[in-house]
Each structure stands twice: as C-alpha cells, then as structure tokens.
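FIELD: query
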Amino acid sequence: MRISQVSVATMTLARTVEEERALRAALRSLAQLGAPVFVSDGGSSEHFRASLRALPNVTVLQPPRPGLVPQIRASLEAASARRTPFVLYTEPDKRQFFERDLERFIADAPDHPGLGASIVARTAASFATFPATQQLTEGTINALFGAEVGVADDFCYGPLILNRELVGRIRDVEDELGWGWRFYVIGAAQRLGYPLHAFATDVPCPPDQRADDVGDRKHRLRQLVQNLEGVLQVMDNWEPS
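FIELD: result
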C-alpha cells in the first residue's frame, strides 16, 4: 500500500503540560508522514490545539459531544471524507512507532481494494514488557476475539488501517461502547467478508507506561469489559461467515 492511499484519524486530550509536550512531539512525527491527519480533540487547552493546527497536514476537529467514541467517530469520518481508499487510525501517543514503523506498516498492508483491516500486532517479546494486568486483560480479549474471527493475533496495540467502506460502521457504535469500538469494527469487517491482515513488530511498552497500580488495573479491566461488549455485539449482529 502507498501513503497516498491513506488519510489518518487520531484524537487527543492533553491534561497536563507534560502530556501536551509528549503529544505535540508525537503528532509532529505523525504529520511528517505527508498524509492528511485529522485530530479530534477532547478538551485540551487552546494553546495546545493552536500548536497542532500549526503542524503541516494537520486538521484539528471538535467532536459534537464529549467521550471517546464521539472523538473517534469525528476523526474517522473526517478522514473518510477525503475519499482515500483507506483510513489509518491510531492513538496519538506512539511516537516511537510513528518514527520507526509507520511507513513500513503502510507498505506492508496488501495493496488490494478488498482489504478489510490491517492491524499492528506486538511480538511476544514486546508484549511481555507491558504491565501484568494489561497482559492478562489484552491476552484474554485477543484469544477470545481471535477464536471468533479465525485469526490468532494481537488486536490491542492500536494502529490499524481500515477500508473506507467500513468507516460507516462506527455509526453503529453507541457512545458507551468505548474502546470496544475497534473490536466491533474489525469483527464487522470479518463478518462482511473482508480479509484481515496483521503486521507484527517489536514495540515495547514505553517506560512511563509500565505502572500497574490500582488506577491502572481498573482502567484495564474497564477496557476489557468494553472490548468484550464489542465482540458480543458482533456476535449478536452477524452470523459467522
């Protein structure tokens, strides 16, 4: 796949000066890809949003209402409106991936209009660097979802390339589904007959994200609940192909 075939969708919420600094640096790297980047911001400072608007290729959006799903929906639909065949979704805090692997990820994706989704999958060695609770919850959903779609892989790291025809499925998702949106959309792709593809790479957990305190464990458990609900909604809406 070529860079010219994708538009990029992402979202931001910088709550501290440190988060502003880290996200600005990561998005500067993402903008250097050269593809149009649509950033849906969830309530950061005007100073931060202005700094993003100054980046090349970047458009900053305001979602219609607060929440993760409205943010993601806004950026995906704006990227889809560029009418590139594919939309690349990513969380914004992946500077190392943007600088080292992003172009390889795009080039590795099959150059075929029927591709449903290409996902970034962590190698086993890099997955082992993440906090214990995160390994447990994400390993659980990967195994359950993989069995449902017939693909054994890591679905949780984040970046994925979606066929533009599938972006409309985000409209099916209730705001409360949260992070389960990605499992719903990837599952919809498989149920609708679109092939899935994975790009395995070594992306160890950043040192500042290796905490496993009570707050982190609660966050991962909530994510697991949302992801499971996304899988259940796929099972409710479609029979296996």
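FIELD: remark
The mean pLDDT is 95.
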